[in-house]
Amino acid sequence: MTFKSFFRNRMTELSLTIIFIVGFLALVSTSQGVLLSRASLQGFLTYLAVPIVIGMAQMVVLCIGQMNLAVGAMGGVSTAIMATQMADHKVSIPVALLVGFLGATAMGAINGALVVLTQLNGFIITLGTMTILLGVQYRLVRTFTIDKYPTSLPDFGKKNIVGFPLILVIAIATSVVLSMYFSRTGSGRRVLATGGNALAARLSGVSNSRSVFIAHTLSGALVGVAAIITIASLPGINRSIGGDWMLSSFSAPIIGGVLMAGGTVAVYGTVIAAGVIRLVDIARAQYSLDPSIVSLTVGVVVLSTVALSEWRRRRTVRQNEGRKVLPA
Amino acid sequence: MSAELLVESVSKAFPGVQALDKVNLALHGGTVHALLGENGAGKSTLIKIITGVYRADAGNLKTNGEERFFDSPIEATHAGIAVVHQERNLIAEFSVEENITLHNPPLRLGIIDRTERTRLANEALTTLGFEIDLNERIKNLSVAQMQLVEIAKALVTKAQIILLDEPTASITAGETVKLFEVISRLKSQGTAILFVSHKLEEVYEICDTVTVLRDGVSVLESKPLANYKQSEIVDLMVGRHLADRKVVIRKVDRQVNAVLELKNLKTSLGHESVSLSLYPGEVLGMYGLVGAGRSELARSILGLHEITGGEILLGGKSVKIKSFRDALHVHRIGYVTENRKEEGLFLDFSVRKNVSVTILSKILQKLGIIHVGKEDVVASKYVDRLGIKVVDNDQLAGTLSGGNQQKVSVSKWLAAETKILIIDEPTVGVDVRTKASFHELITELADEGLSIILISSDLAEIIAISDRILVMRDYELVGEVENTKDYPSISRSIMSSIHSGS
Q1: Which residues form the ABC transporter domain (chain B) (predicted)?
Q2: CATH class of the domain defined by B281-306+322-500
Q3: What are phi and psi of B375, to 5 degrees?
């Protein structure tokens, strides 16, 4: 791959990186360096982990041209399973986390199987499973806060690796693996082929049913990772967990350059977009700004990012139309 | 006043290419003007400039005496220019009537006047001599019917200048006759018509004047068509004399076992009893009119539609093919689709990824990771072999020209190295030179031992490259012709099977 073609298809990710750096520096300078203090930097990075992972959980379903509305509910149930296992059944931490993770993966697999079997869109199926799972979550957690589990778990969540929160490292590592999966494995390539053009994929010998199943299952597994990160970084679990995941899971991948129509992934774009969104949150807290002004600004910034990249994409497409290589 | 459209010295550049270079064209009311050229010669770009999709870099456009370029297709419509695109721009969920009046629905007090709408749509369809239920949804129509609705849509705007971009590419001979009657009528009413087509016979039948584009230059400008022989026009388009291809009668051994045999195959789509045999290294042509059931047969064999009776034998063994995946990976049969954009390509994938999609399992290294080096070698092999014009293998397929997209689409199935390849209408909308290279390729592949079923509605193509020709009509095989490549006699026997049946 040539240097030029590498950037040709990555303009959104490039501009987001610049926005992130400029925004970060602006926050550092206007806060007289408070942001650079150990505690606030730690907070910034720690709470970046979950948005990254749920963004990817949504991304893998967006890339087949579908949506997973149950991201939050699956996360809620998954953390509830982990917490109740440990608190009520005295199951050891690794086993409880594994059971919760597998539970989330299974929920994703069920979504996928239902989409394949009913031939309905993922939007409708996950809308249904979301409602069911919210009921399950409520039955598991009720109105309590479950926190009677070994303190070694929250300690684990506070661990650092060379100055970086361990859970952020887990999130980044997950995204690196995911990126490899889509760019370099046959299975990942087939999932993208299904998303890009299901009919062409079918004629090329790709099983679309399998792709759809894999995408939803993968989404479940990623929600499982997000659930592990969540339970490790919070003092206790209640029924609000996952409540704000669904909408925020869309913003990172979409700002990061993933097409709603399917066929593309942008792992780095999703990660950096989650970072930008996190910066906005920090800014709001830092300056105790009037929330209305903040949401107004955020909305405008988000829309213009999307509009700008769309405009640039169209311009490229237009320039490329009728493109021919001149004889040497 | 009679309609007039003058293109004067129009130029347009895209990065790396001069798409149009000082092109001139004079289109007058009461004439049909042919715009000819190979794929990528600039025909579509010129049409897009006339209709305000693109902005020209230099030159003038005069419409009925008024000198200006249009900034948008709507402005062009208001100036009395209508265009019937190659790609049909219809709304599938809307009715015929709603589509015909889509651009300018008749209003009364701001509300759509249904009575008037029905009247307008009826009027346009009557002019076309085309009968169809006005309330039928577009999605339920055949491709040819859609094409006619598209033309009705142009008529209803009372356009004085109509641009027809390959209007006959996907309609039957009978419908073409009807369309030509309409064109003649419009012409006698003083309408100016620009006619783009790759079918030269049709051009000679209907057109008065001609402009030929080659590499963005108008090499023949608005001349009377009758002054030029067909071969002269082809030379102008191609820019060199296409050497007459040698007629080669290939020897196919049919004493050996057939690689593919159908015995009284019955499908859910309406084939009652189809039997045929395909031998190793044979090019079996399958001719028929659009809608005869050829693609449907191919897709049924490959597991897309249900087989309700009869047998499929591969190498003498009866098999059940469950899906395209099964066909490709287990039975080693490939199918090159006729709809490259909708079914053949991943527009957001690079050329490399498009080519390798059928062979992903063969280019893996440890842990299921794709060996990008091997992948690139395969892609380059087909880019070279088919002469695909790309910047590099990472160029996105969506940014290639039509002919090159078709080649990428074909490459993917060649890369799979199947034993049998069903090729469906490989050269529809493809220019003369690309067409010739496809024909050479198909013969080469057969020489290498690939068994090929070639589905085509182009008689000249079928006769040029098949070894044996089957004729299908109404989901039934009605004739079989041993191809001696003697065009007059073969075409006569094919046409007689089509018209009389057996």
Answers
A1: 5-240, 254-499
A2: alpha beta
A3: -60, -45
The CATH 3.40.50.300 domain(s) of chain B lie at 4-238, 281-306+322-500
Whether A17 is covered by a domain: the verdict is no
Contact B213, B23 (CB under 8 A): yes
Q: What are phi and psi of A243, to 5 degrees?
A: -60, -35
Looking at beta carbons, which residues of chain A come within 8 Å of B396? 9, 320
Structure token pair of residue A157 = 């969540």
Asked whether the whole model's pTM tops 0.95, one would answer no
Q: What number is the ipTM of this complex?
A: 0.80
Q: Which residues of B touch A214 (CB under 8 A)?
A: none
Question: How many residues in chain B?
Answer: 502
Tell me if chain A has a CB within 8 Å of the CB of B40. Answer: yes
CATH number of domain containing A58: 1.10.3470.10
User: What digits encode the pLDDT tens for the residues A201-253?
Assistant: 998 989 999 999 999 999 999 999 999 999 998 888 888 999 889 888 988 99
CATH 3.40.50.300 fits B4-238, yes or no: yes
Q: Contact B30/B2 with Cβ under 8 angstroms?
A: yes
**Could you report the per-residue pLDDT of B362-399, keeping only the tens digit for each?**
888 888 889 989 999 999 999 999 888 888 898 888 87
pLDDT in tens, A272-307: 999 988 888 888 777 777 777 767 776 776 677 677
Strands laid side by side in the B317-319 sheet: B274-278, B260-267, B307-314, B317-319
| Contact yes or no for A322 and B14 at CB 8 A | yes
The interface residues of chain B toward chain A in range 179-218, judged by CB-CB distance below 8 A, are none
Are A200 and B345 a contacting pair at CB < 8 A?
yes
Please answer yes or no on whether A324 and B395 come within 8 Å at the CB atom.
no
Q: CB of B55 within 8 Å of any CB in chain A?
A: no
Question: Does B364 contact A at CB distance below 8 Å?
Answer: yes
